[in-house]
Amino acid sequence: MLNTAFVIGNPDLCIGCRTCEIACVMAHTNKVLGTEAIKDVPFVPRLSVVKTEDISVPVQCRQCEDAPCAEACPEKAIVQRGQIIYVLADKCVGCKNCIMACPIGAVYLTWVEDKPWQKTAYKCDLCIELPDGPQCVKKCPTKALSVVLPDEIEKSIKQKRVNVVRAV
């Protein structure tokens, strides 16, 4: 059974406005948009809106069941916490193994605030510290982002199998 949740973007709805990136930054810096000058907030979103000629969609951690990023971490600084794969920033040494191991490019490095000589890995954590969940999903003006829960994945798989059987 699958046991991790993740956020997925719908390219048919995404307009590439990057509101999700701003919401992510604000959620993780404990700032309220409008009360701080945006230039004073380090802009390090945990997702990235990818734009091509034909499409735009946010790409972020899929909270992989086998978590190649966690397997690649020599410090065991990436762990499963409930339904998410979480970076323990205080254990991370910034070796970049997780970045190389991530199959979708959803792990990033940022400077450690109180250690300006060191970087740490960071990635989507589904806004684990916030009671109303991922702020990118909540703030998207076109509802292009949604949280996929483990039981929804299982239901979808079962329904696909039923559809295949019915089509035979």
From TrEMBL:
4Fe-4S ferredoxin-type domain segment(s): 4-24, 83-112
UniProt-listed CDD domains: HycB_like (cd10554)
The encoding gene: cooF_2
Entry keywords, A to Z: 4Fe-4S, Iron, Iron-sulfur, Metal-binding, Repeat
GO MF annotation, one: metal ion binding
Protein name from the UniProt record: Iron-sulfur protein
InterPro entries xref list: 4Fe4S_Fe-S-bd, 4Fe4S_Fe_S_CS, RnfB_subfamily
Source organism per UniProt: Sporomusa termitida
Residues forming coiled coils: none
